[in-house]
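Hi support team,

I'm filing this because I wasn't sure whether my run with heme C finished correctly. The job status page said complete, but I'd like someone to confirm that the output block is well-formed before I use it downstream. Pasting the exact inputs I used:
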Amino acid sequence: MKKREAQHRTGSALASLSLACTLSAMLGLTGCRGDRAEDPPRQFFPDLDDQQKWKPQTQTQFFADGRAMRQPAANTVAFSRAPLSAQVLEGNPAWSSSLLAERVDLLRADDAVYTGKDATGQYLEKIPVAVDRPMLERGQNRFNIYCAACHGYNGDGKGMVGVQWSYPLPNYHDDKYVVKTDDPLVPQWRDGYLFHTARNGVWSPDGTQNKMPGYAHALNVHDTWAVIAYIRVLQESQRGTKDDVPSAQLATIDAAAKAAADAKAAAEAAKAAPATTPAAPPDKPADKPADKPADNTPEAGKGGAS
Ligand code: HEC
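And here is everything the job wrote out:
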């Protein structure tokens, strides 16, 4: 009985010893990660834990000049690691068009577009990019955000901030901003000059005093041309006459103007008369046609009706 008990005890002691060994071995294995230790951790699956790298400004013997940081090749702009094969570009028109546009912006090879000046350094007379309606609408949007506070929504220089200025702001409708001249001291009619002004601001002749801030930080090159195109629209909107309106639309505008005048006369007559006749009905039909041409041709409508 006693012998058996002793045997049993030795057996269970052995079992627990081996269990303890296994556990401590497992602990040894699992205990590496996250624990503080003086020794380097064991790496069973090193993955990419260790690899060669150079910190900024490190020396290396690999290159003859001893610099680990490489200089970009002269006159190049790093752009895209993927080779831009025709297949890649044509297969992904949506992606490639934005990529190529980005690349053009990086290269800035077209001085006219990026500086507003021609090869001789003269300000361009005309906007060097295609102008279409979406561009004008973009220009209107940007102008109203960045320029109108001072220059006014119609460019007369009477914006909310403009009227508080210590001197009157320029009026874009002055002749010098519109009428072509050979006088080198009057570049204001040139689109390239307006572009340059929008991006760099206005400085005193000696270059020490900033009279108007530049907006290159807020407007990219394409938006700037859009703003200039919109300034030309504003000028046109103030200078237009009835002769600018296509004859087909002239009749509509004349009819609308007549209807508006009739409605006004009717409203005044109704006001003058005792309150027995309701004033509202005559207004209604006349309002409708008067709105119409304004919807179709805002600029022409303004010029034609006034
Ligand atoms: C904070 C007010 C302010 C804002 C905003 C502003 N301007 Fe001006 N701008 C001025 C002032 C002031 C002048 C007159 C500077 C001078 O000649 O003393 C001026 C002048 C100009 C001129 C005439 C330059 C000349 O030589 O005749 C142009 C063109 C112009 N601004 C374009 C713009 C455009 C485009 C924007 C929007 C991107 C803009 N400005 C935004 C204040 C402003």
